[in-house]
Amino acid sequence: MCGFAGFLSLRSYGSQKHSADRLTKIAHQMGDVMIHRGPDGGGIWTDPKVGLALSHRRLSIIDLSKAGRQPMVSGQGRMAISYNGEVYNANELRAELQDIGVAFQGHSDTEVILESSVQWGVVNTVQKLVGMFAFVLWDTVEKQLWLVRDRLGIKPLYYTITPDQTLIFGSELKALRAHPNCPSEINRDAVSAFMRHNYIPGPFSIFKGIQKLQPGHILKLNIDDYEPSVEPYWSLDDAARHGETYPFKGDEPAALEALEALFADAVSRRMIADVPLGAFLSGGIDSSTVVALMQANSTQPVRTFSIGFSEDGFDEAVHAKAVAAHIGTDHTEMYVTSEEARAVIPNLPDYYDEPFADSSQIPTYLVSAMTRDHVTVALSGDGGDELFTGYNRYFQAQKIKRMLTLVPSSLRAAAGSTIRAFPPSFWNDVFKLVPPSKRPPQAGDKMHKLSEVLNTDQDGFYRRIISHWPQPDEIVIDGREPKGIIWDDGLQQRIPDFIRRMQYLDTLTYLPDDILTKVDRASMAVSLEARLPMLDHRLVEFAWRLPEAMKIRNGEGKWLLRQLLYKYVPRTLIDRPKMGFGVPIGDWMRGPLLDWAEDLLSESTFKKHGLLRAAPVLEKWRDHKSGRHNSQYLLWNVLMLHAWAEKYCARGAT
Description:
The structure is a single chain. The longest helix has 18 residues, at 252-269. 48% of the residues are buried. The protein is 43% helix and 14% strand. The chain is of the alpha+beta class. The protein has a six-stranded antiparallel sheet. The chain is built from 29 helices and 17 strands. The protein folds into four domains: 2-234, Aminohydrolase, N-terminal nucleophile (Ntn) domain (Glutamine Phosphoribosylpyrophosphate, subunit 1, domain 1); 247-388 and 510-573, HUPs (Rossmann fold, 3-Layer(aba) Sandwich); 392-504, no CATH class; 585-648, no CATH class.
């Protein structure tokens, strides 16, 4: 796990006017702002003849020797690479290359990618890789540059081509911005998208002209071209179509056996490291399954880590501790005070580089920081909800959609108005009458979300349930929200099943741009490598072949995954309502964060940055402070936007 950056000057190719010192200086600047991604060393490689510079920051995980340093040049000098990630089938690929006479200097996966690309070509190599990765590769013979991002978008990669025809790229926006020619104008359309999603969806970034390379894509640029080609080498569309065409035909025992074999292989591959390794453990289905398979593959107790909160409804540590005790891990837990959690908030703009408003970023950072005190690598259970139908909203949405079809709009509107007539606190009290095992967390917030959905037509149903500000252009000054895949009218025909369609959209949008962004930035802020076995692409493709009955049973998701976990952990430790990984951000806004929030939501701050219309936001703020409504998520969007602007646009937005 590392960070890389670089640039290529296209317009002046052949002029030989590039100063090696200048190339090196800028490359150092770009790498130095990412030391957190690679505190163990750094390197620069330049080619002044073509105006190319590569920078790398190293977090040593595999091959800690000098032979693993980057940027790295292939044995015959043809290709150079700078790379972030881990390839888990590197040993098999190395053996294939050695069989055809390729000699290796070390045992890093970086060298395997490099020599594979020389022998088999970049595209063929990438299709062979099992892992998470983003890298830049330069071919000195063909004068071609390649940017590659892994299939699911676990590792980040940004790029831009400036007006003076310089291609700039890197693992984080701050690295691109360290280049003197990097664009800095705010993309107001992206701000609109952010207000809907609480993250900026790809391929956009907060800055005009800077893009995210989408998951599963390769950018190729010839030195004498000004426009790159960007093509997919893997797509979820293909996986979904293949799953429909070739569904799993075996019975349930056969499916369970296949799942365990694939999952166990994915986990064991991700346990290979030359540094201490552990796992995040929340006590939920996904992380518990990962840890159970880790322990089954280990002769020593696996290190596991969890954090807890004293606030009611936000503490999963007690469940994690029980699971750890049953599996027999070496478990470490830490209870975080609200003061410690709130102390993270001022640093969030630095960690995330662009506005990002999933408040679970706070506990994700805290558990990463605590884990890094003990290990360098941690396995995580992210991805299980998207693959095996785990989100509560899938089932709630299915029920509500049926109701929308059967109930006249006038009755739905009346029901929605009735729900909104009572504050969330009222509904929280009502749900206290429901047995704890069946009671949803933050019930009042969910009821108010339901009231809004009741007034939504079917075509916009998914958009509404994932939206924070449902009409963002009305509050973003000069913003025009880009119409991405969630507006695709043809999607219903391609994926007729409603829940599968929601899973598809979540995997393409919410997973890479929220969940994986959150985990990558939080873990790398403390120089911790997070590995995600659930997102092994082989496991993803298998999950799309499973029939719905093996995912959903008796109104619950993850049926087959649960059967696997029950082989290792009794269901009494697992079967409970899904909690999520959050903090009581709404209560904090009314209490200890009040002064901070008041400052970022002041009329002067709105005027200073000129991004949002103040009136509709301040109306939400007044209602929230009074307790009439809980608008914590909508307000957290605004607070994170303004906190980011305070850091990066001190003189106001441009």
